[in-house]
Specification:
The structure holds two protein chains of two kinds. By secondary structure, chain A is an all-beta fold. Chain A has strands at residues 3-6, 11-14, 19-21, 23-26, 32-38, 45-50, 56-59, 62-65, 75-77, 86-93, 101-103, 107-112. In chain A, a hairpin with a 7-residue loop joins strand 10 (86-93) and strand 11 (101-103). The radius of gyration of chain B is 14 Å and the shape is globular. The mean pLDDT of chain B is 89. Classes of the chains: A mainly beta, B mainly beta.
Chain lengths: 113, 117
C-alpha cells in the first residue's frame, strides 16, 4: 500500500538558517503530494501541493519539488523564521479513482532567535 | 464560509465508557476522513468515507471503534469500552474529492481532545 516516510524530528534551527525536511513516498502510479503544517495550538492546514512529476509547490517561502525518479518531495525554505516553528506533515493521495490520503508521521521544527 | 466543525472540543471519560465524537464537514464535500493524533505522534488514519461508496475502515485499531456517515454529511465516530490508550486528539477532515488525479486539499476540523481516565 501507499506510504510516506519523513525525517524524524525535532529539527532545531537558528533564525535565517536553511531548512530541508526530507520526505519520500511509496505509491503506484502518479500520486498527488502535499505538505501540511500544524502551528502550535492550531489545526492542520495545507501548506503546498504538487500534482505531477517536476511540479514545484510553493507558499510562504516554502518550496517542494515532485521528484518521480527519487520518489521524493522534500520541503525547503531558504531562511526560516521563529514563526515557522510548527509540525510539518508530508502526505500523498493516490491516483486513479477515489483514494484516501496517507500522511507521514510529521516533523517538528523549532526555530530559535 | 463555515469550515469543518467537531464536537465536543474536549471529552473526559472513564475507562470502559462509550463515547461519540461528531464531525460536520464542509457542505458539498463528498470525502470525509477521521484521524487520531496521539501526544507527540503523527497522524494515524482511522477511516475514510467517499460519497456512497463503502468506507475504507482499514485504519480502525480495533472492533471497539466504528464510524458512520448519515446522509453523506455528518459523521459520528464511536469508541466503545474506552481504554486509556484511546486518549488522543481525534481529527476530522473533508475534501471536495473527485476522481482521477485532482489534488484535492483536505480541510481539517479543530479536533476533539479525548482523555480516558
Amino acid at each position: 500500500g501507499d506510504s510516506v516516510t519523513q525525517m524524524e524530528g525535532p529539527v532545531t534551527l537558528s533564525e535565517e538558517a536553511f531548512l530541508t525536511i526530507n520526505c519520500t513516498y511509496t505509491a503506484t502510479g502518479y500520486p498527488s503530494l502535499f505538505w501540511y503544517v500544524q502551528y502550535p495550538g492550531e489545526g492542520l492546514q495545507l501548506l503546498l501541493k504538487a500534482t505531477k512529476a517536476d511540479d514545484k509547490g510553493s507558499n510562504k517561502g516554502f518550496e517542494a519539488t515532485y521528484r518521480k525518479e527519487t520518489t521524493s518531495f522534500h520541503l525547503e525554505k531558504g531562511s526560516v523564521q521563529v514563526s515557522d516553528s510548527a509540525v510539518y506533515f508530508c502526505a500523498l493521495r493516490g491516483s486513479g479513482g477515489y483514494q484516501k490520503v496517507t500522511f507521514g508521521t510529521g516533523t517538528k521544527l523549532q526555530v530559535i532567535p | 464560509g463555515a469550515g469543518v466543525s467537531q464536537s465536543p472540543s474536549n471529552k473526559v471519560t472513564e475507562k470502559g465508557k462509550d463515547v461519540e465524537l461528531r464531525c460536520d464537514p464542509i457542505s458539498g464535500h463528498t470525502a470525509l476522513y477521521w484521524y487520531r493524533q496521539s501526544l507527540g505522534q503523527g497522524l494515524e488514519f482511522l477511516i475514510y468515507f467517499q460519497g456512497n461508496s463503502a468506507p475504507d475502515k482499514s485504519g480502525l485499531p480495533s472492533d471497539r471503534f466504528s464510524a458512520e456517515r448519515t446522509g453523506g454529511s455528518v459523521s459520528t465516530l464511536t469508541i466503545q469500552r474506552t481504554q486509556q490508550e484511546d486518549s488522543a486528539v481525534y481529527l476530522c477532515a473533508s475534501s471536495p474529492q473527485g476522481q482521477g488525479r485532482v489534488a484535492e486539499t483536505q480541510y481539517f476540523g479543530p479536533g476533539t481532545r479525548l482523555l480516558v481516565l
